[in-house]
Amino acid sequence: MSEISQYALDMADKVEAFVREKVVPYEKDPRRDHHGAPTDELLMELRGLAREAGVLTPHIRADGSHLTQRETAVVLIKSGLSPLGPLACNTMAPDEGNMYLIGHVGSPELKERFLKPLVEGKGRSAFFMTEPAEWGGAGSDPSMMKTTCHKDGNHWVINGRKTFITGAQGAMVGIVMAASAEEDTKGGACMFLVDLPDDAIRIDEVPNTIDSSMPGGHATLTIDNLRVPAEHMLGDPGEGFKYAQIRLSPARLSHCMRWLGCCIRAHEIASDYACRRMAFGKQLIEHEGVGFMLAENEILIKQSELMIDWCASVLDTGSLGTVESSMAKVSVSEALMKIADNCVQVMGGTGVTERTIVEQVFREIRAFRIYDGPTEVHKWSLAKKIRRDWRKAQEAAAKEAEPA
User: Fold this and answer.
1) Which residue ranges does the record assign to the Acyl-CoA dehydrogenase/oxidase N-terminal domain (predicted)?
2) I want to staple 185 with a disulfide (CB 3.0 to 4.6 A). Which of 18, 180, 297, 337 is the partner?
3) Helix 6-18 crosses helix 69-79 at what angle (to 10 degrees)?
4) What is the residue-wise DSSP string for 189-252?
């Protein structure tokens, strides 16, 4: 198991102090878009404060190297102590996952052009993979991808539709995934880095959603003859699905880290409320129905911390960790949903108002159970592995039983 460096521990302390002292007061800031997400004006103001405090993009060192996943966990959990914390510190999705992918797959030239401004917090990015269900496109099953790309001289031309593209509106960098029509790619997917905005990418809709923490919302858009220079392909042609796994496994875990931080803060608020509020002659927390919910929260928080640390340790070995990240995504998202629900319940009417962040945390965690793969998809994937392992065991037993 990789050790957590003193650098990471010190950075986590700095991030926590920054979020609690500087970011939390902004939670009531009215600069929000049509569905309640922070505007880019607010985002850049917060990032300016993070830059001054030395906590901007804290999971990437000055030399461009990433912290280990275990180290990233201690930092990102602290950044999540406010819904605005990951935005301020530049640890929020989809940027954090996109930076990870470009850093691991991109050429030096692509890193200089596309990664550097993201690390410096100068703009946002978007990951274009999911497609509209009514179009028959890719959702949890990326092999259904209908967006296509083909060569045209020294460019690739992309056509298709995408949906639920977080942060697309207002982003400066996009990673577009498309199925290749070229014979030498064997029908595999390709990934491209694109400058945004681009007239060939038309945003059709940015719906109001239950969550409201991510600038730019979750857009549906049309890609109409988008021309991308061949040198802007991310990695090799036809390897897009492999690269998607490089991004998605740690990105799922990063979501767990950030939202655990939010639930820790919500639990603090609910606990404070229960210890101050009097009902039926005693503090709320003295009533078993309330005290037991908060006790359950303490247990679920610790379970989530352990699950995150275990999965991070696996990823630090160099494994893709798809099984482990699926387990973590299911376990942590379901545990955090229970924590958030308990916090709302403990606080009663106050818990469903905007007086505290508890109401928002509940909404954000409900959405978290869906994005980066719904609970049921991950369980289905794990069940398939159980069947595969059983078949292998049966085959091995049968082979061993064969006469010499």
Assistant:
1) 10-122
2) 180
3) 10
4) EEEEEEESS-TTEEEEE----S---STT-EEEEEEEEEEEEGGGB-SSTT-HHHHHHHHHHHHH
Provide the CA 89 distance to its chain's centre, in angstroms: 14
pLDDT tens-digit series, residues 204-221: 999 999 999 999 999 999
Report DSSP letters for 24-88, one per residue.
GGGGG---B-TTSPBPHHHHHHHHHHHHHHT-SSTTB-TTSPBPPHHHHHHHHHHHTTSTTHHHH
pLDDT number for residue 403: 82
Q: CATH assignment of 126-237?
A: 2.40.110.10
Residue with tokens 């990934």: 191
Cβ atoms < 10 Å from Cβ of 400: 7
The residue assigned the tokens 């549906």 is 220
Domain boundaries, the chain: 6-92, 126-237, 241-391
Question: CA dihedral defined by 385, 100, 33, 371, rounded to 10 degrees?
Answer: 0
Pairing outcome for strands 148-152 and 173-180: parallel
Domain 241-391: give its CATH architecture: Up-down Bundle (1.20)
- Could you read off the pLDDT of 284-325 as tens digits, one per residue? 999 999 999 999 999 999 999 999 999 999 999 999 899 999
Domains 126-237 and 241-391 are alike in CATH topology: no
